[in-house]
Amino acid sequence: RDLPPTTLWGYQGSSPGPTLEAKRGEPFLIEWANALPTHHLLPIDHGIHGAEKDRPDVRTVAHVHGARVGPNDDGWPEDAFAPGHSLLYHYPNAQDAATLWYHDHAMGITRLNIYAGLYGAYLLRDPEEQALALPDGEHELPLILCDRLIARDGQLYYPVSDDPAAPWVSEAYGNATLCNGKLYPFIEVEPRRYRLRLINAANARHYELSLSSRHPFVQIGSDQGLLPAPLERMRVELYPAERADVVVDFSGLDGQTVELRQPSEPLLQFRVRNRGDKNAVSVAMPTALRAVPRIDPASATRERILTVGEMDDANGNAMMMTLGGHHWSDPITEDPLQDSVEIWSLVNLTGDAHPIHLHLVRFQILERRPYDLFAWNERKELKYTGPGQPPPPHEAGWKDTVRADPDMVTRIIVRFEGEPGKYVWHCHLLEHEDNEMMRPFKLL
Ligand code: C2O
Ligand code: CU
Ligand code: CU
C-alpha cells in the first residue's frame, strides 16, 4: 500500500500498449520510436545473445505476431535499435480478421523487454466478421495475461540463475498475474454477452482458464481467426503467444461477481451490473462462423523433420536448446518456396511442451504422433509408436503457434504465402527463444 508504483516499460506510455485496430485492406504505417532510457529496467544477464559488447543494453524492435508482412517490416531480431532511433514499418493488413499482438523482438533480450512491459494487442477486422454481429464496442475486450515476479519493493524482479553452468533461467515464472498490466483488477460488465480476446503474453507460463460461475467460454476463434463454429469450453488452455477469441454470457447474473481463474487462482473480477442500458440485451450467437478449408497433405511438396530442444553438450553447455539441431547463426536450412505447401514435423526431444511459432504464415495442425525417442537418440531414426492424434476442434482452425508436446512429433502443414525474404521461427517460451531456440527461415 505504501509502495511506490511499479515501473514498467510500455508503448505510448502504457503497458500493455494501446490496442491497435486494423481493417483488412487498410494498411498501416507505424513509426516505432525507441524512447526508452539508456539503462535497462532489468539486469542484463549473460544469456547467449544478451550482453554482447558491441550492442547497447537497451535496444528494441517491434514485431506484430501473426501479421503477414514483408521481411523488412517484421521485426528481424538483429535490427533492434537503441534509444533515440526509430524505424518505420509497413503493415499491409491483407489477411483475415484475427487477434494479433505486438511485442518486442530484440535479439537475445526479448524475454527481458517483454517482461518489462513491451507488448500490446492488435486486432484485425474484416467485413465478413463484422456481419456476424459479435459483441463489439465496449462489449469487446482484449485480455492480455502474463505473470511477473514482484519484489518486496513493489518492483519487477527477473529471476537470475545461481548455477554457474547454467547462466540463464530456463523458464521465468512470476508470483503475480497481470491482466492488461494490472494485478487482480475488476471490470463492470452488463448482464449480456461479451467478446474477450485472450492473449497469453507470459514468458513461460501456460494458462488453464475457467470462470467461477461455471459457465462455459464459447470459443469462436484461435490464433489466426475464426473457427468454423462456436465451441463451448469449460477451460481454455493457452501456451505462450497463443490466443483464444471467446464469448462469455453474463445474462442472468445481475449483481453477481464472476472471476476469471487460473486454474483456481482468481485473476480478474467481472462485476455484473445492470445499468439499465437497452443495449444490455444479448444478441443471438451465430451458429456458423468461418469455413477453415483443410490443406490437403497430398499438396505438400516437402516434409521437414525438425527437432525441438536438442541439448547441445559440445561446449558442456547443457542449457542450450536448439531447433533442428542448429544455432541461430548457422546457415539457413529452412528455405521453402513461395506459395509451396510443406509439412513441418516437430520432433520434441525434451520432457516439456514448447510453443513453436512461425512468423509470416498461418498453418494447420495435422496431428501429434507418439514416437520412439530412443530410436532417435541411438540411430536418428524417426520411428512412430502409435497412430497420430488429430487436433481437437479448438486447435483445428488457423494457427501461428503450436504446442509441441513431449514424446510427440507435432506435424503442421503450411502454405508459405508472402513476400520472399528472411523471417524467423522459434519457441515462444521467451527464455528458450533468447537462448538458441530461434532460427531464421528464408522464403525463396
Ligand atoms: Cu510473438 Cu517471433 O513472435
Ligand atoms: Cu511472430
Ligand atoms: Cu521451448
UniProtKB/TrEMBL annotation:
Keywords: Capsid protein, Signal, Virion. GO terms for molecular function: copper ion binding; oxidoreductase activity. Residues 60-128, 324-442 form the Plastocyanin-like domain. This is Spore coat protein A. The lineage of its organism: Bacteria, Pseudomonadati, Pseudomonadota, Gammaproteobacteria, Lysobacterales. The chain holds residues 101 to 544 of 547 of the full protein.
